[in-house]
Amino acid sequence: MEHEEDEEPPLAVQIQGNDEFVSQKSSVGVTLITGYLGAGKSTLVNHILNSQHGKRIAVILNEFGEEIGVERAMINEGDKGALVEEWVELANGCICCTVKHSLVQALEQLVQRKDRLDHILLETTGLANPAPLASVLWLDEQLESEVKLDSIVTVVDAKNLRFQLDEHRGSSSFPEAYFQIAFADIIILNKVDLVSAESSGALEKLEEEIHNINSLAEIIHSVQCQVDLSKILNRQAYDTARVTHLETLLEESRSLSTKKLHDSGVRTICISGAEMIDIDKTRIWLEEILWEKKYDMDVYRCKGVLSVQNSDELHTLQAVRELYEIVPSRKWKKEEKRINKIVFIGHNLKEDILINSFRDRATV
């Protein structure tokens, strides 16, 4: 699949870590909900809208089309008056609307409402790739003090996933299913009853298939998307304060064997090393990979912990496409072994090049 944004110079810039951004407590979390056609995404949204959960949740149904282009749509605040449909109040305390043009405008209107919200859900209807929306929520100066990206949730059809992936295996283009899995923090493996009834071990094979693409994602089984909301809300996947959770994910990813994957498809690679890094050199190295595509690798997501020279603080790395941040998270503990661990999720990843270029270009 070709991406229009790859034709243009990178719009993303490095986020400078600062206490105000990290510690903002008054902002409302936004969860992106994505999923392949027929996976059950709308079923999940309806489950949330009809549940008596005691939370004030806003659900935004996003009707951007592929042909519009997200960046252009969001600056098209337009001369045609209001672009956001009427907010609909629901009996369980939720509110819902459909956005046809400006997501930023919708969020601004939403957070200006008098009633306090607990959470916002954004269903990315019609978008194959959640990365542009994630970037806006992460970076937009108008929104960062009001809302924050909480996590990306992908609904997967357990019955048809293998067919969807096999159809494009080894191809240079990938369907929505690959991108949605690659960018996900949480994957709802829906319709598991249809698979488990067929053969034993089928679900385990599907989970292995998913983790080969994205080893950082948590997988939740469901039937008709009946999931506990506490498992998908307030996950704080982009909160640098949750470094312990990130370290656990990275440790689990390290056990992933990439040697058995012989194609250059979408997959996960983890690199590690004990050498301290030069933070300026590391930024240059990252920008060569993320922005310049120097080694012909297409990185979708990146997470890591870093041991920085002349610093007693553990730094965390997060990246979504060209957008990245490196920020200090906490003090290294005396008994800890200082180490760098970085997980890359993307297409055409080259493990040896990542290991060698990191050692040569980023470390002291």
UniProtKB/TrEMBL annotation:
Catalytic activities: GTP + H2O = GDP + phosphate + H(+)
Residue ranges annotated for the CobW C-terminal domain, each copy included: 267-360
Family assignment from sequence similarity: Belongs to the SIMIBI class G3E GTPase family. ZNG1 subfamily.
Gene Ontology CC terms: cytoplasm
GO molecular function, one term: hydrolase activity
Protein name: CobW C-terminal domain-containing protein
Pfam family, one: cobW
Gene3D superfamilies according to UniProt: CobW-like, C-terminal domain, P-loop containing nucleotide triphosphate hydrolases
Keywords for this protein: Chaperone, GTP-binding, Hydrolase, Nucleotide-binding, Zinc
InterPro entries: CobW-likC_sf (IPR036627), CobW-like_C (IPR011629), CobW/HypB/UreG_nucleotide-bd (IPR003495), P-loop_NTPase (IPR027417), Zinc-reg_GTPase_activator (IPR051316)
Keyword Membrane: no
Residues in CobW/HypB/UreG nucleotide-binding domain copies: 30-220
UniProt keyword Nucleotide-binding, yes or no: yes
